[in-house]
What we know:
Largest sheet: 8 strands, mixed
Strand content: 15-25%
Distance between the termini: 41 Å
CATH topology: Rossmann fold
Number of domains: 1
Amino acid sequence: MSDQPPRRVCLLTGAGGVLGQDFCRRWRHDYAIVAVYRRRPPRAPSQGAGLVDPLAPGAALPDNRSPVFAVQSDLDADAEVERVVELALARFGQVDLLVNAAVHVRHDRLTSLAGSADFLDTTFSVNVTLPARLAAVLAREHWLHRRAENEAWGRNVVNLSSMAAFGLVPGAGLSAYSASKAALNLLTAHLAYEFGGFGVRVNALAPTSFPRLIPTSAVSDAIVDLDRSDLTGTLVQLDEHGTRELH
């Protein structure tokens, strides 16, 4: 039997990363978060971990309220996408927001492809294929025939892109990363077109470097702004000057 969600349910990948950790800490009281991580679990109370007062080990601490549902997964492995979606639906009965924040970045030159294409294949798999597969599996298992319900709940997908997708980043070895994010931008537009048929919005958020140039909290908040909007098929750029919408 699933738990009845008191809040909107958010399926978040990359929960162990800089952005995922911040999102879990800042927004777990507003969302029931399925926090998917590969190696490092999010530093937030979860179904298996919480804060303890050493002077009163049995006391209920306010900081442990609204724990995330932490799920360890290598999403690239066989049937893992299906397993994660199944766990989310079994736990909460619904998913209202999918945030594809898992990312693969490897600084390498394209001349290395003469020896192996592994770094290019892995980058595109994590940054492009997996976000699309998660959205597609979630649609098949939950959203596809629920248009009225989807619209009522404002269900949507937010894909994490990057400002690196809009031009050359010289000397950084980010060719594969930049190209994968550019591909994700276009894929987001196509997903928005297809998912609009059953009432689910799809957008992409492209921040500049964080936390170096902008605070990570600004990216977390921009995800929530997109969730609360009525935008679809939109690419939102985020930098030191704020957000800009590209349709």
